[in-house]
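Human: Here is a favour to ask of a fellow structure person. Comparing notes only helps if you start from a blank page. I am asking you to supply a protein in sequence and structure-token form. Write it directly below this note and I will take it from there.

Assistant:
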Amino acid sequence: MALSARAQGAGHRRIAFDLGVPAATVRGWLRRAGQRLEVVRSWFVGVAVAAGIDVVIPDGSGCLWREVVAAVGCAVEAVGQRFGPAGLLGAVTAAQVAVAVSGGRLLAPGWPPA
């Protein structure tokens, strides 16, 4: 996932190469995401609190990119607690939760809604 790679310090060219998409596309994703990291983090923490049984608010060690990734992880854990470790269709993944929570618009302009 592009956000995870960015949180680990990868640049847009490296991420683009790894994902097999144009560098300009990834650069756009990261610019949009970078402008609303706190809003996205809050959205996923809200999902975790709404779905979770025993939620621990994540700590991303002061880096907003890592905090977003930690919030997604928290939401994944909360959804897993709610629906069981195997879920209805197998293990719950970060990608599945990110797509479900954002309606597939995680890196799109205008998400999350105001």
Observations:
- Residues 1-35 form one domain.
- The first helix runs from residue 2 to 7.
